[in-house]
Design a protein that fits this description.
Strand 18 and strand 19 form a beta hairpin. Helix 13 packs parallel to helix 14. This protein is α/β, with parallel strands linked by helices.
Length: 645
């Protein structure tokens, strides 16, 4: 093993002497942040060196690198210990997040060195998401800069409550106390509303080691702790959420027929054998029979432990489900308010759909509204219609299906999420849940008779047959014939027709684009409830927008949603005109009529396309029934059933 490089006696006391009375503490995760060239990498390199975390071969390589690409003249360039990318060394900046581990007799540390350039703000947010403390570096010559403020706001939003205000390069201003005091005063004014529990200001020189591990003789006017002394003693233990038990299911562990467990990392609280737990999404309850780990069973486990829960009852809890204490459940909702750090070059505008990844679950989601933008200079909240790169704002998000979450202030693990571009798979935003929009005390009850049981007694597979096409194409006619034939075969069915729902459930909706979208959303929910009852549900709707139909499809398991395109040319539909609607639309008596003054988006890849230009709907209905019977009777995989159609 390589020897640890000896620490030269450049300071009046050894680090151990200064921290001898410090109580032993647990692991501390912290990050360095601030504007570019404030000395973050140099500070971490100096900490590693002073705490004897640099081995002989590393020190020799550091000497060579300092001569080749260093920026400190002939001195050791400690930044090179963490700036490992070639591009970082060429430009003298940090690009990626670099993690380093070191320890002292009093504490262990994991430090994240984050970039200062504005274009790498997303990387800083990544480092801050797991930190309990932030070291915010400020160049004593420059004072507070825009990026200093931005990083402070992001640290606050990401739940960091302890800050070290490291006024670096104090040697370059002659160790002047007035300069230090002025910077501290400016920061206190700026940060007073950010919610930090502690802000410890320290004058230091990362390059020469002043006030890093021992007090500097050059700052006799400073009577506070050294940086390492403060890090060793600060009580900034990571939170285990709001203290309530949370286990997001990462994997259903089923190695054989005799074992079924739910694996994941506990995101909050504590659980013990015998405790009652609930699956937040489905409402199903059970008791913990075993807590299994790699090293054997445990009687109890707590936040941070990776475990497999074996339950006393067989319940369905797929990946993404969250187990919780039944008396203290997470929020389960489809609409939430959240703070976003926007990370994409393309502007965020309301209405676009993304994938939202929260915990172990990924669901389609849409940013419905942007409430305001946070001005990082003044902390003022300004109404806006879009967010640009690195902007921070409060938004309203709607997910396609309900998700379980906590407010980020209560649980960092179950309150943090990312938005992912559905086409490029790039992460475009980091988000922090603030609250649910609408009712927050709604929790599903886990009924004993479920969808599978209802379908089993009917001896069929639940399906949704979604007939779409222009008005007059024959959707309702064909759906009526299909249901009659299925009924004759003993199938349990129901039909949802557009006009019927428009006279009842959806009587409050118009025919503009937003109303049409809401109309189809409601129909999709009703169809899902009917399918949960074990029925074959026939839906005959124009549903002109492809995105609306896709959103309904995503509410069902693969193979359960069958899109049937009733394809007839507009002129054929207008000629049939069974309700006289085309004529009224052309006369201007019906506005926003699909096929006349509103477009129709045909399916790109429907499960079944019916050529409805001909006069024989009976034959088309027979074709549908033949295909449906194959699905209802078949017990194959969703891939197989998709191929059958």
């Amino acid at each position: 093993m390589n020897a640890v490089h000896p620490l030269p006696s450049t300071q009046p006391d050894a680090p151990e002497k200064f921290t001898a009375d410090a109580p032993a503490r647990g692991l501390l995760r912290f990050l360095t942040c601030g504007s570019v060239d404030d000395g973050k990498s140099t500070l971490i390199g100096r900490l590693l060196y002073e705490t004897r975390a640099v081995f002989d071969d590393q020190y020799s390589a550091l000497e060579d690198d300092s001569r080749r690409v260093g920026t400190t003249g002939g001195d050791i360039d400690f930044a090179l210990l963490v700036d490992g990318l070639e591009a970082e060394r060429e430009q003298g900046i940090t690009i990626d997040v670099a993690y380093r581990y070191f320890s002292t007799p009093r504490r262990s540390f994991i430090v994240a060195d984050t970039p200062g350039h504005e274009q790498y703000t997303r990387n800083m947010a990544t480092g801050a998401s797991n930190a309990d403390l932030a070291i915010l570096l400020i160049d004593a010559r420059k004072g507070l800069l825009t990026q200093t403020r931005r990083h402070s706001v992001i640290a606050s939003l990401l739940g960091i409550r302890h800050v070290v205000l490291a006024v670096n390069k104090i040697d370059l201003v002659g160790f002047d106390q007035a300069t230090f005091d002025a910077i501290v005063a400016d920061y206190e004014v700026f940060a007073r509303d950010l919610g930090f529990l502690s802000v410890q200001a320290i004058p230091l020189s990362a390059r020469f080691g002043d006030n890093i591990c021992v007090p500097s003789a050059s700052t006799p006017w400073y009577e506070g702790p050294t940086l390492l002394g403060h890090l060793e003693t600060i009580d900034a233990a990571g939170r285990d959420g709001n203290g309530q038990f949370r286990l997001p299911v990462q994997w259903v562990n089923r190695p054989n027929l005799d074992f079924r467990g739910f694996s994941g990392t506990i995101a909050g609280g504590r659980v013990a054998v015998g405790d009652e737990v609930v699956a937040a999404g489905s409402g199903k309850r059970s008791h913990v029979a075993r807590i299994v780990t790699f090293d054997g069973d445990l009687p109890a486990a707590e936040a941070g432990d990776a475990v497999t829960l074996v339950l006393a009852d067989e319940i369905d809890a797929p990946r993404g489900e969250v187990f919780a204490d039944p008396r203290h459940r997470p929020i389960v909702a489809t609409r939430l308010a959240a703070r976003l750090v926007w990370m994409a070059d393309e502007m965020l505008v309301p209405g676009r759909s993304y994938n939202l990844k929260l915990g172990t679950r990924t669901v389609p989601a849409t940013v419905r509204a942007i409430r305001h933008y946070l001005d990082i200079e003044t902390l003022a909240e300004t109404p806006v219609v879009s967010l640009g790169l690195n902007a921070i704002g409060l938004v309203e998000i709607e997910t396609l299906v309900p998700v379980a979450f906590d407010a980020y202030t209560d649980n960092r693990e179950l309150g943090a999420f990312i938005l992912i571009d559905r086409f490029t798979n790039a992460t475009v935003a980091a988000g922090m849940a603030v609250e649910a929009l609408g009712a927050t005390n709604v929790h599903r009850h886990g009924f004993d008779v479920d969808r599978a049981a209802r379908a089993d007694i009917k001896r069929q597979r639940p399906l949704v047959l979604w007939f779409t096409g222009l008005p007059g194409s024959g959707k309702s006619t064909i759906a009526n014939l299909v249901e009659a034939k299925l009924h004759a075969l003993g199938r349990h069915t129901t039909t949802l027709d557009g006009d019927a729902l428009r006279q009842g459930l959806n009587a409050d909706l118009g025919f503009d684009a937003a109303s049409r979208t809401e109309n189809i959303r409601r129909v999709g929910e009703v169809a899902r409830l009917m399918a949960d009852a074990g029925l074959i549900v026939l839906c005959a709707f124009v549903s002109p927008f492809r995105a609306d139909r896709d959103r309904v499809r995503e509410r069902f398991a693969p193979g359960e949603f069958v899109e049937i395109f009733v394809d007839a040319p507009p002129e054929v539909c207008a000629e049939r005109d069974p309700k006289g609607l085309y004529a009224q639309a052309k006369e201007g008596r019906i506005a926003a009529f699909t096929g006349v003054d509103q477009g129709y988006e045909p399916p790109l890849d429907p499960e079944l396309r019916l050529d409805a230009a001909g006069p024989d709907p009976e034959a088309l209905a027979a074709t549908v029934v033949e295909r449906v019977e194959a699905l209802v009777l078949g017990a194959g995989s969703s891939a197989e059933t998709s191929a059958e159609l």
